[in-house]
Amino acid sequence: MYRKVGTQQELDIFYHIKKTSWDEKGFEMEYAEPHSEQFLFYIDEKPGGTFQFTPYAYSRPFIRNKFDNIVLDGMNLVEVDSFAVLPAYRGKLGREIVSFLIHYAKEHQYTHAIGMADPYVFELFNQTYRIRTIQVQEAEWFKGAFAIPALFHLQEVYEQAEHDWYSPPEEWKAGVF
């Protein structure tokens, strides 16, 4: 199951999950920007994962400076951030969160996403999920660890033939959705 963060209690849970995961990776904590939408992901009604979307027009200046030069006509961009899964939920929620990313992009007609990707996540998107993800600049030290400025080609995924890992949220198995 997933839920859009709508209360202070949910936001506190979101930050707890994100901070736990980010501390493990060495990232400095950052907090939600205005116009962002945060989501919590659950298994058996227990929160275990997070994800955040920000329309590109509302991205922070740091992000805009990284990506403005790659924006082309016809692109509808969203910034993705806060992909975090608690250790006990790894291997259980990742696929659902990535499926939700594709579902959200299709619903909002986002063609691409941009973000500062952990090198492991960058490879995961390219190799496991086969979401074409392009490194647009050199990896750099970002909030405590190396991160890759990445462009995710989402429209290619939701307009292509089905992927074996993808299931829209309404089809998630009991306990997850």
Number of helices: 5
**Distance between the first and last residues' Cα:** 3 Å
Order of helices and strands: EHEEHEHEHEEEH
Helix-residue proportion = 25-40%
Strand content: 25-35%
CATH topology: Aminopeptidase
What would you give as the CATH superfamily?
Gcn5-related N-acetyltransferase (GNAT)
User: What are the segments in which pLDDT stays under 50 over at least 5 consecutive residues?
Assistant: none
CATH class: Alpha Beta
Q: Can you tell me the CATH architecture? A: 3-Layer(aba) Sandwich
Structural class: alpha+beta
Mean pLDDT: 90
Please give the number of β-strands: 8
Overall body shape:
globular
Largest sheet: 8 strands, mixed
Calculate Rg over CA atoms: 15 Å
> How many domain modules?
1
EC number: 2.3.1.-
Pfam families: Acetyltransf_1
GO molecular function: acyltransferase activity
Keywords: Acyltransferase, Transferase
